[in-house]
Design goal:
The protein is α+β, with helices and mostly antiparallel strands. The protein contains 13 helices and 17 strands. The chain has a 6-stranded mixed sheet. Strands 12-13-9-14 form a 4-stranded antiparallel sheet, with helices on one face. The protein has a 3-stranded antiparallel sheet with strand order 4-5-17. Helix 4 packs across helix 12 and helix 6 packs across helix 7.
Length: 445
């Protein structure tokens, strides 16, 4: 059968039904097991021989192969099983139980649900694509691998929040790849609006602890007036640092913006958690406060440079404290992915009237599992549907989901049937020059 004939066998309702089935399995990071089991059972029921890859027993990854006849490029399709918001996350969202985060449905011409758009809809699309290729009896030269992974969304050990319950990326795509799920290329099917993204920042997480050099004042004895930076209350002192941090964060992202051939990185930093005092004991001003910073860093950047800038910020404000790096994950700009990129472009052109879209900065400025594969030397890019209103509506067009399945068929048939040069190396594309080039630019070099 030709590619056109295989594409014509795709049943749009089957794509939607699988996306809804997956989207209605609530699987926030740390609770991916049921969704992983569904994918495993679906693959087994459709003639594949899936395998589980687990660092933690109930948080496993799933992969299955369509084995090629030999001599072609090997391609891995990848998406993640975990979703963003736990229903008990009362300090993260105004309504953590909102059905939009825990279920999926079709309304009009759109499919809704956080889990569908991130990232089970694209997963359903490539699973149906692989099924269509298999059912057609199409012969591929290279292997086609479909994979569903846990732990893509951050849930990182810090303070009393310890491993293994608070693990994410270490047990997901990276663990799966180091245990045998390897291709010449990886297509991470995660929302890009059908643009091709080949660069992602790394990230560094910091704990900034502010302390006071004053007694632990009982509320009636608090001295007033004081400034923010010299207040005897650590929460108030931390507010002075956070105000200065916001100015630093904007300057940081401007200084470190990077424009590459497959995307533009605007690395942002944000205070996303804070701790101090106890709500059941409010009679005295706390002497310790901590806030936690998510900092995106350029490929090749040293996270200790950002740490030193935050330490200098404390000194500038005149507040005693410490800055601790507790997470570092590097980012990468893909090299050596041209065969995959060109296959995507050709297949896209057979599916859509316009070329791949220009991807918005926030999409190219986030951490995705492309980094996990690129770190291991496997060239990886992202390409999948995405709604322009993704952040607010958590939906995309049903037609886009179905078109994704169609274009994934074409990508697999195109790439896996290309001749693979003997001795194709992994890791040759790794580079660490982006941060250095941006630093040189900032110095006026």
């Amino acid at each position: 059968m030709t590619a056109d004939e295989i594409v014509a066998t795709i049943d749009p309702q089957e794509v939607v039904d699988l996306a809804l089935a997956l989207g209605n399995i609530d699987s926030p990071t740390g609770s991916e097991g049921a969704a992983g089991q569904y994918v495993f059972d679906w693959l087994a029921g459709n003639g594949f021989a899936p395998r589980k890859y687990a660092l933690v027993e109930d948080r496993f990854n799933v992969a299955a192969w369509l084995h090629g006849s030999g001599g072609g490029y090997n391609l891995v399709f990848n998406s993640h099983l975990d979703t963003t918001l736990r229903p008990d996350a009362i300090w993260s969202a105004r309504d953590p139980g909102d059905p939009l985060y825990h279920s999926a449905w079709v309304e009009g011409d759109e499919i809704f649900g956080d889990g569908v758009v991130n990232d089970k809809g694209p997963m359903a699309a490539f699973l149906i694509a692989a099924k269509a290729i298999r059912d057609a009896g199409a012969t591929l030269k290279g292997d086609l691998v479909v994979s569903a992974v846990a732990g893509e969304i951050s849930r990182e050990p810090v303070d009393e929040f310890a491993a293994p319950d608070y693990l994410s990326k270490d047990l997901g795509a990276r663990f799966m790849a180091t245990h045998g799920v390897v291709g010449d290329f990886v297509l991470v099917a995660e929302g890009t609006g059908f643009g091709i993204v080949g660069v992602e920042p790394g990230k560094a997480h910091f704990k900034v602890t502010v302390v006071t050099d004053t007694p632990r004042y009982y509320t009636p004895y608090l001295p007033r007036p004081t400034g923010l930076a010299d207040a005897p209350n650590a929460i108030v002192r931390a507010s002075a640092v956070i105000a200065a941090f916001e100015e630093w964060a904007y300057d940081y992202q401007v200084r470190n913006t990077y424009e590459g051939p497959l995307g533009r990185i605007v690395p942002k930093a944000s205070v996303n958690a804070i701790r101090s005092g106890y709500p059941f004991n409010l009679t005295s001003a706390p002497q310790v406060a901590a806030f936690y910073v998510d900092t995106r860093i350029l490929p090749g950047a040293n996270p200790l440079d950002a740490r030193d800038e935050l330490r200098a910020l404390l000194a500038k404000v005149g507040v005693e404290g410490t800055v601790e790096l507790f997470l570092y994950r590097p980012g990468f700009e893909v090299k050596g992915a041209q065969p995959l990129v060109e296959a995507i472009r050709r297949s896209h052109a057979r599916t859509f009237p316009d070329p791949p879209t220009i991807v918005a900065d926030p999409v190219t400025s986030m951490w995705r599992d492309t980094n996990a594969f690129n770190e291991l030397g496997i060239p990886a890019v992202s390409y999948a549907p995405r709604s322009a209103s993704h952040a607010a509506r958590k939906s995309f067009k049903v037609a886009d989901l179905v078109d994704a399945a169609r274009v994934y068929v074409r990508i697999a048939l195109d790439l896996c049937n290309q001749e693979r040069p003997a001795g194709t190396p992994l890791g040759a594309h790794l580079n660490r020059d982006i941060a250095a080039s941006v630093a040189k630019r900032n110095r006026g070099g």
